[in-house]
Design a protein that fits this description.
This protein is an alpha+beta fold. Helix content is 25%, strand content 22%. It has 6 helices and 12 strands. The strands form 4 sheets. Strands 1-6-7-5 form a 4-stranded antiparallel β-sheet, covered by helices on one side. Helix 3 packs across helix 6 (200-219). The chain is globular, with a radius of gyration of 20 Å. It starts with a helix and ends in a 6-residue tail after the last strand. The chain binds a DNA duplex through residues 1-3, 32, 60, 75-79, 95, 112-117, 158-161, 164, 167, 169, 176-177, 225-227, 229, 266-270.
Length: 279
DNA sequence: ACGCCCGCCTGTAAGC
DNA sequence: TGCTTACAGGCGGGCG
């Protein structure tokens, strides 16, 4: 499912394609994907005719900054895709909810079968210029947790279990179920450890694991699972799934010690880990 | 403060 | 083979 590496892959592909381009028209199908807006009209009027000045990301949110100072925010939720079509004549996939036509040809399509994702336009905060709707997000897992001491400060301040904390977007933004499990395995730490129980050495391992896993995943263009929900701008799958060491490997031998990988349900979510390598 | 559940959704696949 | 059911989970809200 789209987490930080998948959104970052889309961001890196989208930036050279969209920056400097004018959005010549906007089409919206249905109201669910744009539910933050009172009407389709509002989004259409604020985006049409604007030029994209940069493409950013915060956590799992994709940010298209416009020359009006507004930001067009895209969140993929569980099943969202941003697809680029070179020609507007290419047939649109099912569940295409928002279409941005680019001046000079081609269009961007927001496609989302399960409709957990959304698209909205936001005005900048008067003080810091950020997106107020995203002010609740914590440190970006890739850009802002730059030293293990940053992570130590976050972990020590809470008394929650490690995995729910890693997935709490208000604390660290960008990690979901897949990468949390992969990071915890790489760090050799169990998901249900209390966050303030880690030794400095374990915090350093966790920090190194987080940075390394995220960079590796971006290098392999993200994880497309069996359902193939995640696709990049061109509709191609990412290949990081083949490098998962615990996620969706229940019963398979641990790649480090051969112990069967265990699956547990925690807070209604599947958690995969090696009972021997993770302590 | 924390843990856990629900509702929102659709496509896929396992089970009967 | 065809139907029903479970499952996938990001996120916000609510409850104990």
């Amino acid at each position: 499912m789209p987490e930080l590496p998948e959104v970052e892959t889309i961001r890196r592909d989208l930036a050279p394609l969209a920056v400097g381009r004018r959005i010549s028209s906007v089409q919206v199908r249905g109201t669910r994907s744009i539910r933050r807006h009172a009407s389709e009209r509002e989004l259409i009027d604020r985006v049409t005719g604007r030029t994209v000045t940069s493409v950013g990301r915060k956590g799992k949110y994709l940010l298209l900054r416009l020359d009006s100072a507004d930001t067009l925010v895209v969140h993929l939720g569980m099943s969202g895709q941003v697809l680029h079509a070179r020609s507007r004549l290419e047939p649109r996939p099912r569940h295409t909810h928002v279409v941005l036509a680019l001046a000079g040809g081609g269009e961007l399509r927001f496609v989302d079968p399960r409709t957990f994702g959304e698209v909205f336009v936001a005005a900048p905060d008067a003080r810091d210029g950020g997106v107020p709707e995203l002010a609740h997000l914590g440190f970006d897992a890739l850009e802002q947790v730059t030293s293990w001491r940053d992570l130590a400060a976050v972990l020590g301040g809470r008394r929650t279990k490690l995995k729910p904390l890693l997935m709490d977007q208000r604390v660290i933004a960008g990690l979901g179920n897949i990468y949390s499990d992969e990071i915890l395995f790489a760090a050799g730490v169990r998901h249900d450890r209390r966050s303030d129980s880690l030794s400095p050495q374990e915090v350093r391992r966790l920090h190194r694991a987080m940075t390394r896993i995220l960079h590796d995943a971006i290098e392999h263009r993200g994880s497309s699972l069996a359902d193939q929900q995640y696709r990049d701008l061109n509709g191609d799958a990412g290949s990081f799934r083949a490098r998962h060491r615990v996620y969706a490997r229940e019963g398979a031998p641990c790649l480090r010690c051969r112990t069967p990988i265990v699956r547990e349900n925690a807070a209604g979510r599947s958690t995969f880990f090696c009972p021997r390598c993770q302590t």
